[in-house]
Amino acid sequence: MEKEGKEKWKDMLRLLRPHQWIKNGVVFLAMIFGGRFFDADCWLATSLATISFCLMSSCIYCINDVIDCKYDRIDPVKCKRPIASGRVSASEALVTALVAALLSLAVSLVWLPAACTGVLAAYLCLNILYCVALKHVVLVDVMVIALGFVLRLEAGGIASHIWLSQWIVIMVFLLALFLALAKRRHEVVLVNRSEKQEGRRSVTGYTVPFLNASLSMLGAVLILGYVMYTLQPRNGVEYEYLYVTALPVLFGIMRYLQLTIVENRSGSPSKIAYSDGPMLITGAVWFVSFMLLVYW
User: Fold this and answer.
1) How far apart are CA 152 and CA 160, in angstroms?
2) Which residues contact 176 (CB under 8 A, 6 or more apart)?
3) Bridge-partner residues for 237, per DSSP?
4) Which of 14, 135, 164, 245 could anchor a disulfide with 157, C-beta 3.0 to 4.6 Å?
5) CA dist list (Å): 37 to 34, 72, 90, 235, 286
6) Distance CA 130, CA 115 (A)
7) Contact in structure between 90 and 68 (CB atoms under 8 Å)
8) What is the residue range of 141's domain?
9) Same structural domain for residues 16 and 126?
10) Domain CATH code at residue 48
11) 217-275 pLDDT tens trace
C-alpha cells in the first residue's frame, strides 16, 4: 500500500512536468539584459515570478493532458504519460490543475505587482484556448507558443520594474517561434516515416521544405536582431564590444539547425538544453562573455 502511494505521488509529479520548468527561465532574461543581475531585490521578485509561472505552466500541462489523453494513448511515447496510461484519472488531473493555478495566482497577488497577476491570467486564458482549439490551426499554434514566452519575459520585467528593450521582446518571440517550428518539423518527419500518427495536431499544413525555409529565415532574422540589440545604447551607456557575443549566438542557432535538419533531434528543446554538449558550452560562453562585457 505504501509503495502504491509513493508511485501515485511520482505520477502526480510527472503530470506537472517539472523538467519543462526550464522554459520559465525566460523570466530571468529581463534582469540579465536590464543590467540588474546582482540586485538582490530583483532576484527575489524574479524568483517569485518564475515560481508563479512554473505553477501556472504545470496547470496548463494537466489540462492539456486531459484534453489530449485519447490521442496520447495511440502515441508510442506519450502513451506513457500518467493520464494516458490510466495511472492518474482526469478528475485528479483537473483538481491538480486548479490547485496549481490558485497557488500561482496567490504567489503573484501577495508578493508581486498587480500587473504580474494580469500577465499570468492572460497566459492561462491564452493557453486554455490553445489546448482547446488553437493548437489545430496551422501557424497560429506556433505563434501562441511564442507569445507565451513573451508573457514570461514581460512578467520578469514587471516584477523587477525593468524596462524591456523592443529588441529583447522581438528576439524572445522569434527564438520561441524558431524552436516551436523546429519541433513541428520533428513531428512532420515522424509522420512521414509512419513512426507517429497525426493525432491531435494536424501536420498537413506543414511540410519539411516549408519548415526548413522558415527556420533558415528566422535564424537569419534572429542574428540580425541580436546584433542590432548589441549596438543599441542602454540607459545612456554604450557597450563597445558587446557585438562580440553575437558569435556564440550564431553558433548556437547553426547548431540547433544542424540538430533539426541533419539529425532530426528537435522534438524536445528542453531535452536538448539539458543534454547537448555543444549547446551547453555555447550557452555558457555567451553568458560569461555577456556578463563580463556588461557588468565588469
Assistant:
1) 13
2) 145, 146, 148, 149, 150
3) 234
4) 164
5) 8, 41, 41, 15, 15
6) 22
7) no
8) 1-164
9) yes
10) 1.10.357.140
11) 999 999 999 998 888 876 656 678 899 999 999 999 999 999 999 998 888 888 888 88
Give me the residue label for grid cell 489546448. Answer: 131
pLDDT digits (tens, 9 = 90+) for 29-59: 999 998 899 999 999 999 999 999 999 999 9
Looking at the structure, tell me whether residues 94 and 44 fall in a common domain: yes
Q: Are residues 169 and 158 in the same domain?
A: no
State how many domains the chain has: 2
Rg (CA), the chain: 20
- Helix residue spans in the chain (DSSP H): 2-16, 29-33, 40-72, 90-111, 114-132, 140-160, 166-192, 208-230, 246-257, 269-275, 277-295
Last residue of a domain, one of 164, 188, 203: 164
Cβ neighbors of 37 (< 8 A, separation 6 or more) are 31, 291, 295
Q: At a CB cut-off of 8 Å and minimum separation 6, what does 181 contact? A: 142, 211, 214, 215, 218
Beta bridge partners of 234: 237
1, 37, 156, 158, 213 from 55: Cα distances, Å? 29, 24, 15, 18, 35
CB atoms within 10 A of CB 23: 21
The C-alpha atoms of residue 11 and residue 1 are separated, in whole angstroms, by: 15
In the numeric block, which cell numbers belong to residue 174?
522569434
Cell (9 digits) for 165: 528593450
Co-location of 232 and 201 in the same domain: yes
